[in-house]
Amino acid sequence: MAEQQTGGPLRGLRILDLTRILAGPTCTQLLGDLGADVIKIERPNVGDDTRKWGPPYVKDKNGKDTSESAYYLASNRNKRSITIDLSSPAGIALVKNLLHHCDIFVHNFKVGGLEKYGLSYKDLKHEFPALVYCSITGFGQTGPYASRAGYDFLAQGLGGIMSLTGEPNGEPMKVGVGIADVMCGMYASTAILSAIHHRNKTGEGQMIDVALLDTQIAWLVNEATNYFLSGEVPIRRGNAHPNIVPYQVFPTSDGHFILAVGNDQQFYRFCEFAGKASLARDQRFATNQERLRHREELIDEISMLTVLKSTDDWINGLSDIGVPSGKVSNLEETFKDPQVMHRGMRISMPHPLAHSESVDLLSNPLKFSKTPVTYRASPPTLGANTDEILEEILGLDASELKILRESKTI
To answer: Could you confirm whether domain 14-219+343-406 is CATH 3.40.50.10540?
Structure first.
């Protein structure tokens, strides 16, 4: 059996990362976890906006807040931070010099925002023909909304997911995390790797145009095709599923549990376990198609049964007979769950400012047999790697660094 490689499957790729907030940093953190060298460019004395998005912040040895927020820590692992002033010609020259040593350039400036710095794709494509250039924006490079600033919340609203989320009679509801940003970052990482594959075959770089709105709409999945086929606008159903019944949260004697019946056989086994097999023989409920038509009557019937047992009784009993069910955990319960612990979804990494000298982070969920994910560096403090990067990649010496620092270029 081949030994595992320790550098990750993307080792040897270098990314110049001019992103901030969540979508772009999610993309580049994933690529960094997979072994790429990610150089995060930040504004001197300011940095990524999310550094200030707290509390909570990392606590120092005196128990006081540092400048490192939990939000920033969530998506900036396995990166090196360099501060460069893009408003100065010397700063632009540094960025272009670094690009000569990079494979990928990722940014989330508004449309046209990098043109004034000479860093648009049009400006760079001839000088860097093999460069994979990825632009992440709210609405894309084209169309009537292209010039608008884009945020996760706006994408969730315009992209339709809020019309599907929440209680039937409640207000439209966003997802509890910035899922439009996260999924945009995921789509962007897939696009970048596809472009690298093309470049490796042809030597040809290209531009990638990824938008929050487009990617938000792309993961409407079955609800979008439900609408396309039926012509009916989907509605909010709370925790219920639009195409499967019963598939939602039900009350128990001591809380709630999730019942996720996926076929008629599972429904029959559920009814037997619940002590009411007659429900499965009732023509209104015998097939999923009929259960969808008689959703409300069936949910009422099941709710009267589920309150007779505890959450654990339902989950344990249904698990034994192959009927999918589960608990609704808060985050403390999630990270104490034996399956979650076994899969290593919480990791600890050294951090120079933390009182405990480490911070806990979410792990990468990808498991490789030969080229595992690596955790090489905790989210960097602002500009922590400036001198290191300029010395290592551009060969600048101490006197040159001093000049750049005195001119406030870095």
So the answer is: yes
